[in-house]
Amino acid sequence: MKKCRKITDLISKQQDQVHLSLFNRIALAVHLSLCPRCREYKKQLELISNAMHKLFR
After folding, report:
1. Of 14, 22, 40, 53, which is most buried by a Cβ count within 10 Å?
2. How many CB atoms lie within 10 A of CB 11?
3. If phi over 0 gives left and psi between -120 and 50 gives alpha, with beta otherwise, what is residue 18?
């Protein structure tokens, strides 16, 4: 399993709509299914992104 530091980088890249390889998408999905801290990080990043989109519409 990849380390949380690498996973948070992948989450950020995915949020920025960077294409992830199949291997990285699978690794991300598996890690998120097992790691509550990384799931929370992803939720927080999505919340911030949504707030910024609403603010600058």
Report:
1. 14
2. 22
3. beta
Tokens 């989109």 correspond to what residue? 53
Q: What's the farthest any 2 CA atoms get from each other in the chain?
A: 39
- Report yes or no on whether pTM surpasses 0.85: yes
| Residues ≥6 apart with Cβ < 8 Å to 8 | 38, 41
Element (H, E) at 47: helix 36-55
* Predicted pLDDT at 2: 83
Neighbours of 7 (CB within 10 A): 22
d(CA 52, CA 20): 24
pLDDT of residue 35: 98
Each domain of the chain, given as residue ranges in start order, spans: 1-56
* Section 16-29 average pLDDT: 96
